[in-house]
Every structure is written in structure tokens, then in C-alpha cells.
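Folded chain entry —
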Amino acid sequence: MIELNELRDKAYRNAVVHGWHDENLSDEHFLCLVISELMEAVEADRKGMHANRKRFESYMNLKERTDDEFIYAFKYDIKDSLEDELADACIRLLDLAGLRGYDLDSFDYEGSDTEDYSDMTFTESMFRICVYVTDNFYRDELYILLNEIFAFCRDRNIDIFWHIKQKMKYNELRPYKHGDKSY
């Protein structure tokens, strides 16, 4: 398993540098943004938008690529895809965990009990994850929220950690507050 505290710290540091913590905002604010990413994943699924990892990796592996070439390939092959939006939801949870100082590495992700997403449609799965996000019982246990997304991705053979890594690199290369976003 990947070191989630390292990802947490990286997501949080990048959010600070890009101005996302200039104001003291509530957990509800951040959790609402997680839900918005999950709904963007639903929209991507409705439109059949999936990442083209094979083409992206082929392009990136041809030669040493510049940051501009990475951005180009990311926008062309990954941006706004279902996988990209799920990575965004995870990054938002990782960022919130960093902001609030949650230890994410102390949880047994592999051995934990999660929903069985295999019999659910995509929309049913996203709804179920949103229920976890809005449930006061789980709200303070961000590792459980992350774990539900991880479980869904495992069920659908989505390498979410690869997508998180690519999106974090893309986010690092974006301008302050991504150019024009207020939150």
C-alpha cells in the first residue's frame, strides 16, 4: 500500500501554495467539494469520458518531456475523465486530512470492511460514497471515506493511485487558485 500520509502532506502543501487555505473554512465546505468531484465523475461516466492511460504513457515515454508537454498530454488524455474526477475527490480528502492533521497510515485499508460495489451501478456507487461523506458518524474518519473510493476503484480495476499521482503533478503546475477559481 502506498504511504497515504506522504500523499496527504503533498496534497496539503500544494493546496496551501495555491491559495486554497487562505481562509479558515469548515469541514463541511471541503466535504461538499468532495461530493462535487464525485458528481463530476458521474457526469464523466454519463459522457463516456475515460482516461486514455496507454496513449498518455506512450507519449510521455517517447522522450524526456517538459512540464508543458506533460500538461498537454494530461489535458488530452486524462483531464475531466471519470478517473481524473475520482482522483480529485481523493486529493480533496487527502488535503482535508493534512489540514486537520489526520493520520491516514494507521488504518488497515486492505483488511477493512467496505461496501461491495460489484452489484451497484456507477451512480449507485457514487451515491453510496456520498452517503458516507455526509454521514456524521464517518465524517471525522477520513480514512474510511478514502477507503470507500479505493474499494470502488479496486472493484472497477481503476489504478486510483496512478491517477492521483498524475493529477497531483498537474495541480502543482497550475497557477494560483488555478487561475480563476474562488474555491
In short: The mean pLDDT is 94. The chain has nine helices and no strands. Residues 27-46 form the longest helix (20 residues).
